[in-house]
Amino acid sequence: MNYLIPAQAGAQLLSLFVFGAIARWYVVPWLVRQEPATALIALLWVHVFRYVALQVFSSQYDGFPISDGGAMEIVVGDVAGAVLAFIAIVLLRRGWRVGVLVAWLLAAETVYDTVSNIHGGVREHLMGAASGATWLVLVFFVPAVVVSVVLLVWQLYARRAEILRPTHSGETVMSPKAVALATNTVLKR
User: Fold this and answer.
1) Which terminus of the chain is less hemmed in, N or C, by CB atoms within 10 Å?
2) Does the pTM of the predicted model rise above 0.70?
3) Closest CA to 74 of 141, 174, 29
């Protein structure tokens, strides 16, 4: 029997569960105590490292059976996500509200990219074909990206009424009403 497919699927599911538990127990309570820009920036940093997808070319060279088109689709989507994340971080650090828009754009791009990559993997029968670095990326990094985008969308939506205002230090602050709104959203669960 070939255990490669259930091993990869099981490891991805376990990683989603573990990252979800970490998010619920540690990340969510920390996020609600942070300024809006700080919370968003922390979540965006996970996406900056999506350029790790460039390793698919090395994996393809070593025998990972992905087509050239499939590899390029992965790379373009993830490198675009990394660039958007970094741009959003720079804008939010400067207190520019357009950073929130770029973060929303990244969230939409990430959802599209994830669904597209799943579809491509099914189409090319790649489940269970990964090994080495590709396996580690799929089993650990992809679930981290999925959990972080869920948290990112939650923060963007829950804090939509907050106004990012630059301070003298370049950081941003939120209003007391926004603090109460964000805290109540989490505490009602």
Assistant:
1) N
2) yes
3) 141
